Amino acid sequence: MADSPTVYIETYGCQMNVSDSELMLGRLAEYGYRAVDVPDGADVILVNTCAIRDHAEQRVLGRIGELKRHMKASTVLGVTGCMAQRLGPRLLERAKHVDLVIGPDGYRALPSLIESARNGERVAKVDFDLEEHYEDFRARRVDGVSAWIPVQRGCDYKCTYCIVPTTRGPERSRALDDVVRETRETVAEGITEITLLGQTVNSYNDGTNDFADLLQAVGSVPGLRRLRFTSPHPNDFSERVIEAMATTGAVCEHVHLPMQSGSSTTLKRMLRRYSREEYRECVARLRAAIPGLALTTDIIVGFPGETEEEFAETLEMVSEIGFDDAFTFKFSAREGTPATRLPESWTISDEVASERLARLILAVRSGTRTINLGMLGERHEVLVEKLSRRGTLLQARTRHHRTVLIPGDESMIGRYLMAELTGTTGSTFTGAVVPTRAALPMAG
Ligand code: 5AD
Ligand code: SF4
Question: Which one of 27, 175, 319, 350 has the largest count of C-beta atoms within 10 Å of its C-beta?
Fold first, then answer.
């Protein structure tokens, strides 16, 4: 296959982008392309981008500049994803070595657009396609242990800070049967953990089935052992959905529930559509239905108008709720979002935002540490994912999404083991494998 054209892809941003990259590689494989791990000499280079914060965009712009050095005269350079959608033709003007700019709904045209680029055309394709789910693409999965399955594209919430409704368009759900079909195929390939993806995944509705139906249907695929989803919106946790989570054995005891702020007034300016009390109540309902539930979250500091008192309410909620972990961000103004139209005098200086972020990170870390120290000695089923970054241990994960480093070798990747939590750095655990009947070699 030495003659087949090669494609190199670099992915930024969220899991939805990781999943889109797998779809693009799958599509191109059907057209004879071979994926390669380095950009040098590739016939096609794709950069799948994120637009969520300015920092993410600046990084990608720098990288696009750098990639020029790795291109042959004939290399086609395509920029895809959210930043491509946001900037469209402006990106072609800005970087003359970019041939293609393709938004998240345009990947079906990738092979033909690459052909056009070969013929010297430079194209920006950024229209939305409300029917598009890429159902017929066979994702080329990079990970052999855990798989992403997109079930919903776009977003209908209009949180005032967020660029996603602009970059991914209106919300639409993929048909339940098709999600189940992909799950079956994925399990048949030997993958036993899947994560359902959507911008507000629990608002899933394909016209006939809601997210509760989806969890039940996917959860009953034989051979599937772990079912996760990300990211839900607090307002879409209906009783039905919570009930389905609690009664579907494969659904893992972990929810990533973006809070964004612990202050009702800030939440109102963010147009999150829930108050501090309602968030708290959602957590209580989830915890009552799923004992031992692990909770992680996203929090933004420095949103326009955030007072010290409002920020203190966020810190209070962090300690009250007891998150297992949190992704924390400084607010970044995104062109065209409603937050940019708030009074200029409400802007929080970078100095104040940085200081708040530092305090928030300390609060989150201290909470995580307390929870984790309290877990030492417990035994948990872990799924071995890969070699740890240092390469001397294996990285495994509990159903609660906690990382446990255990001794072992590559042959154990993909296996379920029982691990005793023996130590913690505060955020991750070290563990010892405990022999169980199931983990012992089968006799005969
Ligand atoms: N600035 C900072 N953080 C943001 N997020 C989304 N938009 C912005 C923004 N403009 C964060 C939210 C979201 C996560 C994916 O990124 O916390 O949940
Ligand atoms: Fe994902 Fe949002 Fe970034 Fe797009 S902008 S890649 S949807 S995080």
Answer: 27
